[in-house]
Amino acid sequence: MKTQKSTIVDTVEELVNKGNSALGFIVATFLIMGLQVAALIPLTSLPLEFLMTESVIIYPTNIPYLVAYFTIPLFFYIGVSLLLNPKRIISPLLAQIGTIALVTIILAFKASMISISTSDQMMVLIQSLASTIAFWAMLLVEAGVIQLLFVRWVVGLSFDNVDRESYLVEGKSPQDVIVYFGKIFLATHHFEKPRQQSSVWITKRFDTRSKSSLVIAIGEQVGNPKNSIIGTVAFRRGMYVIKKDETSSAIRDEIIRGKLLEIDPSRKPIKVSSENLNDNASIIAFEEARDITISKLGTISEKTRDIPLFFKILISGTLLAIIALTLLQLLGYGYFTELIATLIIALVLEIGLPLRDELQNRLSKRKAEA
């Protein structure tokens, strides 16, 4: 009864966390979009009357500022993505698309307020404005793709769910089973070169068209080295998240179950129940799939999950303020170096204080248990 109640509580907590994460994703995306639109004031504040006389495109002139526009917000994208629990990638590409949409509305509104006397002026204005928007859209979207790939590499993909299945092969050692997964089989189904992790044999494949991934791990049954366990994990690896997918599971079933029947036709492999996936092969196969979601910042990303929501909001706001002030300084609206340094100190304290409290709580629990 207690186990059932505990499961319900865990499920409710997971749903609440997912809801908070989704809300945080939406708020963070709109915040950074607003900041990026404000950062493009040099473009949106230009008088458009000169576009009526000749067909021109408004190109960026302050290259250092443009570089800062694309690089400084990366701290916000990475920081907030790691703060969300469960982790979600704040997409620079989505933010850049939203930014260019808002900039287009602003420029179109300004153009509509211009007094135009001839149809030729209107045509030149429309042509210049369309060319300018097309240029900036291409620039922001291409930069957004590069930003996204970098953020995705640093943060790691989000984890939704995967399809885990393991099979017991009785009377066959792992070495015997590995023979059936030979070079021809691996090459035919486009698996990577196998490798060994402790006593477990591992290989995996990724289909670039369907985005389907499959991990296979072969090891001993716990307590019986004469039997083998074949652990498999099937999932779809998208741009932002890995998740369970019917196509991936179907590919796994077609490849693996067909091959299992060849190992020993007289003995049908036994599917291991989901509650008993605690052998080395099943665990390592699952960890291999989870590795895709691990941030390059490692320990820092794990610790951010322990930061209370209040501090996460403060940290996000501080990051946004640092970026805004830095862009304003580059734009020539003032000298904010001291204020930026103060905000950086505040950011360190906002991160350090809750982590210190969390470590103290864990230490107190360990002492109490001892």
What does this entry look like structurally?
- The model is unreliable at 4-10 (pLDDT under 50).
- By secondary structure, this protein is α+β, with helices and mostly antiparallel strands.
- The chain has 13 helices and eight strands.
- It has helices spanning 2-39, 41-44, 63-71, 73-83, 92-112, 119-155, 174-180, 183-188, 246-263, 280-290, 299-304, 309-331, 337-369, and strands at residues 158-159, 163-169, 195-197, 200-206, 212-221, 224-237, 241-243, 270-272.
- Strands 1, 2, 3, 4, 5, 6, 7 and 8 form an eight-stranded mixed beta sheet that branches.
Contiguous low-pLDDT stretches (5 residues minimum) are 4-10
Helix content: 55-70%
Major beta sheet, specifics?
8 strands, mixed
| Range of strand content | 5-15%
Average residue-wise pLDDT: 83
Task: Note the gap between the termini.
Answer: 28 Å
How many separate domains?
2
Number of strands: 8
Give me the Rg, rounded. 27 Å
What letter string, H or E per element, gives the SSE order? HHHHHHEEHHEEEEEHEHHHH
Describe the global form: elongated
The helix/strand class is alpha+beta
